[in-house]
Design goal:
The structure holds two protein chains of two kinds.
Chain A (H helix, E strand, L loop, with lengths): L5 H11 L4 H16 L5 H12 L4 H31 L4 H8 L12 H38 L1 H8 L1 H13 L1
Chain B lengths: L2 H20 L1 H17 L3 E9 L4 E10 L6 E12 L2 H5 L3 E13 L1 E2 L19 H39 L2 H4 L21 H34 L8 H56 L9 H29 L3 H6 L18 E9 L8 E11 L2 H4 L3 E8 L7 E13 L2 E13 L12 E4 L2 E11 L2 E11 L2 E4 L9 H12 L3 E11 L3 E7 L1 H43 L10 H83 L1
Parallel strand pairs in B: 4-6
Antiparallel strand pairs in B: 1-2, 2-3, 3-4, 3-5, 4-7, 6-7, 7-8, 8-9, 9-10, 10-12, 11-14, 12-13, 13-15, 15-16
Classes of the chains: A mainly alpha, B alpha+beta.
Chain lengths: 174, 669
């Protein structure tokens, strides 16, 4: 109904839900890997399986996937550069050659600069995203939520008829 | 842990595996047909496929591969093929086949239905509204900006490469023709002419530009024609109406033809990316091999350094290719599709330890029974085929025989060896073989040839080098027991005597040796053939001359003999008298007789003297021997007498002594 607002409202919902900060942080981190790396790859199957099996927040994972999929477009050039550097690195050359010679490994497309670069990039961001989201959720639930709720702007928005109308429509559409 | 989800996922995976195994046959069959049709460009159909994972065997029936150039004909048809395989090895990407049995392989058989692929229906283009046009304009602007940004990024990369070169590598030692201070263009590394991918890119670029102009003109002319057709004739004039209808029909045909041509252009552009990708891989393989070949600007460069240089720069060159490709694809209105996609990146390739999936075929048997021989058939065996020559340690051996529908009485056998190596998608096959084809009945020299050939056998030996799609082959062919004659069609305006001589010369030719070379690609092969026919004809002609000379000699001799016989009685009459005796020779005869008598007497006297001399000598000899014998006789007699005397005395003495002894005994008694 409201394509721009929906992920945001979902995110607010998750923040207000019973999900633990660890679960939300895990969802954000795993969703980031899915979003940053090209989707149709074997490693994403493993990530998807992990997301479904480990107790991470699926909603947060899907939001993170959407956001990082959009971010992936401008980051592709950086991913390409990192991937190319790593794949052409002389000290790693023997290792890549050995991998390349395993028949099933080429299915992973590890030798593609974007796949390799974006995977490295997402692994680098994995812990910062996890820690950042964990800290944010904890902080939000601790004191930030109260502060935000008490902000005059928020109070004005939530008291407005437009917001009430939005809430009614949202509840009606589910 | 979401155990329920985990169990669900495991169940789903297990279900998928079971489902895949159940429908593996039809899935693989569909894939073979789809991929095969795509590769060949015509229908590839399989009647059935049976893959048994339990028995680890594959059997397929009724394979037909249509000819894209002649859709009612099959390039290849086979009744069935079956082989066993090792599943664990196959999962590791290793293909080991002990024996593959191919039943009734044939070429050029007729099809019941057309093998042409159905043309894809093009989606109808919706007329664009104002909004759509504005969106297009905005997209074009955005694209332009993106291209500019990419251009800047590429320039920056180039700058970086320039620095890397000047800092790390003493490039002048290795590549004296390149000056990185002036900006390194990867295309400088290699001769552009030898880079098929670059050449293809250039050609495609030219093609795209040329076709662009061509289509603009073509559309213009069609539009003009269409406008002229807008003026409809008066309905009351049937003749004009008929002429107008014919014009409209002709115009419709023109439109259809233009559409067809345009579709072909689109197909070419769409497949350009794949072609360039393949050519690029071939170029990479060639470039990597360059330093091993030695010579040229890259002669002294080490493999490692070359690869380093190559990878650093070829990837940039590939970025240029990608740009070209984007441009080409954009020309055909595919830019929107590409804009939605993320960057494709660059796929880096590494050396393969085993260039192909490890493949080993111990024996392939191609079977065709007598009643199954249709089209161009063959049968025989192929043994010891492997992607890794070290595995077998020997070349593949082929032993085939076959026949052709075009030459119903022809039959060939071929035996030989083939060395095969492969690098990525480039095969390198060296074949050495020889064979024989009997009853080759054809006007093998072509319809315009002054010579016709029929019958005979073809014995050939050849060596073939196939690298990628590049062929280099040399072959020797001997046409044996053939019948040759002059062809009137090929000898128009030639003097009758010459024809006669040629015909006569050809009668004596029973064999020809042909020597040939074939070079080029599979699609574009140049074959040059030289024969010793001229030498053979010369020798036959020499023989003809020799025989003619001999005949003339004989004729002269006969003429002489006849003349002599004619003149002989006269001569004889001149030399002899009435009794047949030679005239004036009697005296000479008497002299000879006297001389002979005198000689005879002389010889008789000499013989007598000699005999006497010999007799005297023998006689003297006998006398001498006689005297010697007598002397020996006397000596012997004297010796015997003395011996007797001695014995006599001894006897007397002994008797006397005995008598005295007896007497003494008596006296004593």
């Amino acid at each position: 109904m409201f394509p721009g607002i929906e992920p945001f409202s979902k995110f607010i919902k998750i923040l207000h839900s019973d999900a633990s900060p660890q679960q939300i942080a895990g969802g954000a981190a795993f969703g980031m890997i899915l979003g940053l790396t090209p989707l149709w790859n074997i490693h994403n199957l493993v990530i998807l399986l992990l997301v479904m099996v480990i107790r991470v927040n699926l909603g947060m994972a899907s939001i993170s996937f959407i956001i990082f999929s959009i971010l992936a477009f401008p980051l592709d050039f950086l991913s390409h550069k990192i991937g190319l550097e790593v794949l052409n690195n002389l000290s790693l050359r023997q290792f890549w050659t050995d991998l390349y010679n395993i028949p099933t490994m080429t299915w992973t497309r590890f030798n593609n600069s974007i796949v390799m670069g974006s995977l490295i990039l997402s692994l680098i961001f994995f812990i910062p995203v996890w820690v950042g989201m964990f800290t944010f959720v904890k902080g939000y639930r601790g004191s930030l939520k109260e502060k935000i709720d008490n902000l005059r702007v928020v109070k004005a928005i939530t008291a407005s008829s437009v917001y009430k109308w939005y809430q009614r429509v949202r509840d009606w559409t589910g | 842990m979401r155990w329920k989800v985990l169990i669900g996922v495991i169940t789903l995976v297990a279900g998928s595996v079971v489902f895949s195994i159940m429908y593996l046959d039809s899935f693989v069959k569909g894939k073979i047909e789809d991929i095969g049709s795509g590769v060949v460009g015509a229908k590839v159909s399989l009647e059935s496929l049976d893959i048994s994972l339990k028995k680890q065997s594959v059997t397929f029936l009724g394979l037909e591969v249509a000819d894209p150039k002649a859709p009612m004909t099959n390039i290849l048809e086979l009744k069935s093929a079956s082989f066993d395989f090792s599943l664990p090895d196959a999962l590791m990407g290793h293909i080991f086949i002990e024996n593959i049995l191919v039943d009734t392989p044939m070429f050029g058989t007729k099809r019941k239905t057309s093998g042409a692929l159905p043309k894809k229906a093009k989606p109808k283009e919706q007329p664009k509204g104002k909004v759509a046009k504005a969106v297009d304009k905005a997209a074009a602007k955005a694209k332009q900006k993106a291209l500019e940004a990419t251009g800047k990024a590429v320039a920056k990369e180039k700058q970086k490469v320039k620095q890397e070169f000047s800092a790390d590598i003493d490039w002048k030692r290795y590549l004296p023709d390149i000056d990185p201070s002036k900006g390194v263009d990867p295309k400088q590394f290699v001769n552009k002419e030898s880079m098929s991918s670059l050449k293809e890119l250039d050609e495609l670029s030219k093609f795209a530009k040329g076709r662009d102009r061509y289509w603009a003109e073509r559309y213009k002319s069609l539009e003009e024609e269409f406008n002229s057709l807008k003026k409809t004739p008066n309905i009351n004039q049937p003749k004009l109406i008929i002429a107008y209808r014919d014009k409209v029909n002709a115009f419709r045909e023109k439109i259809d033809a233009a559409q067809k041509e345009f579709n072909a252009d689109v197909d070419k552009i769409n497949s350009a990316g794949k072609i360039i990708e393949n050519l690029r891989n071939q170029d990479i393989s060639k470039l990597v091999q360059l330093p091993q070949l030695g010579g040229g600007a890259l002669g002294g460069i080490s493999q490692k350094l070359f690869e380093d240089l190559y990878r650093k720069n070829m990837e940039k060159a590939y970025a240029v290719f990608e740009q070209y490709k984007t441009k080409l694809v954009a020309l055909k209105g595919k830019e929107k599709e590409d804009e939605k996609k993320r960057m494709k990146g660059v796929t880096v390739h590494y050396p393969l330890k085993t260039p192909l999936p490890l493949f080993y075929l111990k024996k392939a048997t191609f079977k065709t029974s007598a009643e199954q021989k249709r089209g161009n058939w063959f049968r025989g065996t192929l043994t010891e085929v492997s992607s890794d020559p070290k595995l077998t340690g020997k070349p593949a051996i082929f032993d085939m025989e076959g026949g052709s529908q075009d030459f119903p009485n022809a039959y060939f056998t071929i035996k030989g060896k083939a060395d095969m190596t492969a690098k990525r998608d480039i095969f390198d096959i060296k074949m050495v073989g020889n064979g024989i084809s009997t009853a080759m009945a054809a006007n093998a020299l072509g319809p315009d040839s002054p010579i016709a050939m029929t019958g005979g056998s073809v014995i050939f030996s050849s060596d073939l080098n196939l690298t990628g799609n590049l062929i280099k082959s040399g072959f020797l062919v001997k046409l044996d027991k053939i019948k040759m004659s002059a062809r009137d069609e090929g000898l128009k305006g030639v003097d009758a005597t010459v024809k006669k001589i040629l015909n006569k010369s050809l009668e004596g030719v029973s064999y020809i040796n042909l020597k040939g070379d074939a070079k080029g690609t599979i699609e574009n092969l140049t074959v040059s053939i030289t024969s010793d026919l001229d030498k053979i004809l010369k020798s036959v002609f020499d023989k003809m001359l020799f025989e003619a000379r001999k005949a003339i000699e004989k004729q002269i001799r006969d003429e002489l003999n006849r003349e002599i016989d004619k003149r002989l009685p006269g001569l004889r009459a001149m030399l002899t008298d009435d009794k047949g005796n030679l005239k004036n020779l009697d005296n000479l005869s008497g002299t000879i007789t006297n001389r002979l008598d005198a000689e005879k007497k002389k010889l008789e006297k000499r013989a007598r003297d000699e005999i006497k001399k010999q007799q005297d000598r023998v006689r003297a000899e006998i006398e001498k021997k006689k005297k010697e014998l007598e002397k020996k006789k006397k000596e012997a007699e004297a010796k015997v007498k003395a011996e007797v005397e001695k014995k006599k005395k001894e006897q007397e003495n002994r008797l006397r002594k005995e008598a005295e002894k007896k007497l003494r005994q008596l006296l004593k008694f």
